Amino acid sequence: MTYVVDFTERKQAEQSELEVRKLQARQGVVNQIAHELNNPLAALMFIVPALRDLPELKGSSDALEMLRNAEQMLERIAALTRAVLAAGSTKSG
Question: Residues with Cβ < 8 Å from 70, sequence gap 6 or more?
């Protein structure tokens, strides 16, 4: 008597599970990076507008323009970080 055992489905299931674990690990790293970016980002988003209000800078249009540009860049980074966190919570949740 001869038995034939097909492990194809089992191997496919194991491979799928492995891929899910890899994806979850990558997403965890991405989320961790996004959270780590939020800490200094929050500080900079507070500091930059405060610098704009310094009396020493009131007459310097160049300095004020640089600070406005910095605020815009910080907003872009904040939006990107929120998008990454939202995508991560949608995929893993």
Answer: 44, 48
